[in-house]
Amino acid sequence: MRHILLALTLTVALASCQDAEPDRIAQPVKRVETGPRIWYPVGQYPALALPDGETRQVKSLLNVRQSMQFGDYVWNEQHVPATGQTWVRVDLARQLLSVFRDGHEIGSAVILYGTDGKPTPSGVFPILEKQQEHRSTLYDAEMPYMLRLTGDGVAVHASNVRRGSATHGCIGVPRSFAALLFAAVRRGDIVAIMPPSAGPLPKHS
Questions:
Q1: Bridge partners, residue 47, by sequence
Q2: Are 162 and 29 in contact (CB under 8 A)?
């Protein structure tokens, strides 16, 4: 049976966050269970292209067997090395963020991103700063577990991830996931934000 990977599990109901009116009631945050990890044979690792032309090999992916909704995330580090290069891939087209360590996907979440008025930029960005507790002086808003990516304030941070919401260019993730991500990355680790035209994660047959 063909496994459906995380990058393809969003349902049609997961509309673009900038197209609807915000809900009055916050969506619940839910940690989604995963099936057995999907492993690629040594020597047959697929490569993911980054916006700057660099590629990164993928050794394994999380096996998410259900559709993910706003507020959902997965995190599973079992059988993955505790050390190794950690990096983040943001898929704007599918509203998903994936975290990789030593080529293995260890976490992913449904995200919020910027509207047309303040879009989220694509590109490869090193994490410039980490602050567990941060408040935006520009927008007078809390940004817990902030990972700053640009000098003008674009960051990954905890948000109330719900249908109809958007950010001012930042990437918003569920708070519980944000805490895990914050602990997993260091300053200098890269966040690759893929343009909407970028392809999905590789498939496994």
A1: 57
A2: no
Separation of alpha carbons 63 and 45, rounded Å? 16
Contacts of 24 (CB under 8 A, 6+ apart): none
What is the three-class DSSP state of 95?
A: coil
Question: Does the pTM of the predicted model rise above 0.90?
Answer: no
Query: Judging by beta carbons within 10 Å of its beta carbon (0-12, 13-18, 19+), is residue 203 exposed, middle or buried?
Result: middle
Taking residue 151's Cβ as centre, other Cβ atoms within 10 Å add up to 7
Partner residues linked to 125 by β-bridges: 191
Whole-angstrom distance, CA of residue 103 vs CA of residue 129: 23
- Of 100, 124, 123, 99, give the one whose Cα is nearest residue 111: 99
Long-range contacts of 96-101 (CB under 8 A, 24+ apart): 96/6, 96/7, 96/10, 96/68, 97/156, 97/171, 97/173, 98/6, 98/7, 98/201, 99/181, 99/184, 99/185, 100/56, 100/58, 101/77, 101/184
3-state secondary structure of 64: coil
CB atoms within 10 A of CB 79: 10
pLDDT tens digit sequence for 127-157: 999 998 766 656 656 779 999 999 988 999 9
